[in-house]
Structure formats: C-alpha cells, structure tokens
Design brief:
single chain; alpha/beta; D-Maltodextrin-Binding Protein, domain 2
Length: 262
C-alpha cells in the first residue's frame, strides 16, 4: 500500500517537475545547430541601428559577428528594444543579448551577465587644446548640458566655483551649441559624443574625463554555464588582441578604457 501511494504521489508531481525545467540553448546546442541568435539594438547608434544599405551596423553588431565567427556558426541578428532584451533571452528567442545593456542587481535576478565588453559613460568632451582632466578644472569654461539629465545633476552637484553651466532643452540643442562655439565644453553620454564626432568629422572634440561609468555587458540565460564561460574567454581574447579597442575607436572615437570583469 505504501509503495502504491508513493508511486501515485510521484506521478502527480512529475508534470510539475517537467514544466519547471527551463529550455536551454547551451554552447553545445549552438555548435550542433550551426546557428546563433543574438539580440542587438534596434535603434541605438552607434551600438546598433539600420544602416544606409539596409543592414544593421554598430559596435554591438560587430561584436555579435565576431562571436559567430569565433564559434564557426551562422548568425541570426534579432533587433530588440530595451524592454525586449531580457524577455527574449528568458523565452529562448535569442541565445545572447548584445545590446548596450548595463548590469544591476535587479536584472541579475533574471539573467546572467558576462564581463563588460564596451564602455558606456557620461563625460566631459572638448577640443584637444583645452587642458581639462577633472570637474574641478571646468572653472572659467562655458559648459553645455541637457537640462534634467543625469549629467546635469552630477555637474550641478560637483561643479566648481566659476563654472558657467548652460542648460539646453534637448540633446540636439546641446550639440548645436558646441558645434557653433557657444559652449567650450559639452557634458553628455559617450554615444552622443561619438555621434557628434561622426556627424562633424572636422570638429575637434575628445574625451576629457568621465563623470559616471555604466559599461555594457552581454546577457546570458541563467543556467547556460558553458556559454557564459565561453563568452568571458571571448571578451578577454578580444581585449588582449586589440579587437575591442579597434571597435571602440571605430564607433566611439576613443581607446577602450579598463572594463570590469565579473
């Protein structure tokens, strides 16, 4: 009787146990399939956006293609919005997320993160002839910032006496003011500054210092240990070999800074 009851109980639990086991797209599965699906930004230049010839281009797109090449598999790029990144990974619609995603404790409840592969930060940018290396050295300069942003809050809190902060209603106005010479320094995100340099190739603008860092990490589905380890080795290899530095110079207009490893 006891054995019969135990069998009945196990039979009742079996469907729940089967449902609880998540689907996997592990490294071995990707290699066997010969294809990897990678989420990239739908419209977030210079990390990822639709190019003039109809193909997606950007820092993240190049990293995704490097991963496929090193794995020796075909790639399927899956453009996503910010809100789609984690759900697409959790539901196996993609194997990896390479979409300028920052790591934080809340997101880490849902997915795993690789070591950082790309810089993402807010900083001060100005011409090469200006000797500025910290917020304290902004005294005496006209500094443009988009009002109400993280950069505005940081600058308001930490700016020295003698700084002239000029706030603009949006990024476009802030950029236009720097290009026209109305401001000496522009404080903004590095991607905005990179686009500024790309749109104005004759403009003298370089990174002076970083106000706040928020580097980008590759998202991996929980449980895919082999894939996560491979991705981390890939990132290390591309850092040591200079590939990521080349991408940083190509898309962000700067050398690759030191990036955190998890």
């Amino acid at each position: 009787m006891l054995k019969r009851l135990m069998k009945t109980a196990m039979a009742a639990l079996l469907p729940a146990l089967i449902v609880a086991v998540p689907a996997k797209a592990e490294l071995s599965d990707i290699l066997s399939a010969g294809t990897i699906k990678i989420a990239i930004p739908e419209n977030f230049p210079p990390f990822g956006s639709l190019g003039a010839e109809g193909d997606y281009v950007g820092y993240d797109v190049d990293v995704a293609n490097l991963i496929a090449a090193d794995l020796g598999v075909e790639i399927e790029l899956v453009p996503v919005t910010s809100k789609q990144r984690i759900p697409f990974l959790e539901t196996d619609r993609v194997d990896l997320v390479i979409s300028s995603m920052g790591a934080n404790p809340e997101r880490a409840k849902s997915i795993w993160f690789s070591s950082a592969y790309a810089p993402f930060f807010s900083g001060a940018f100005a011409s090469s002839d200006k000797a500025i290396s910290s917020v304290d050295e902004l005294a005496g300069f006209k500094v443009g910032v988009t009002g109400g942003t993280l950069e505005d809050l940081e600058l308001t809190e930490k700016g020295p006496e003698g700084i002239e902060i000029i706030r603009f209603g949006d990024n476009a106005a802030n950029l236009a003011a720097y290009v026209s010479g109305q401001t000496d320094v522009i404080v903004t995100g590095n991607t905005v500054a990179a686009q500024l340099a790309a749109d104005n190739p004759d403009l003298d603008v370089e990174t002076k210092f970083i106000i706040k860092e928020s580097p980008a990490f590759i998202g991996v589905k929980k449980g895919n240990v082999d894939l996560l380890q491979w991705v981390n080795v890939f990132i290390l290899h591309k850092k040591l070999g200079g590939d990521l530095n080349s991408l940083s110079e190509k898309w962000l207009g700067q050398e690759l800074p030191d990036l955190p490893a998890l």
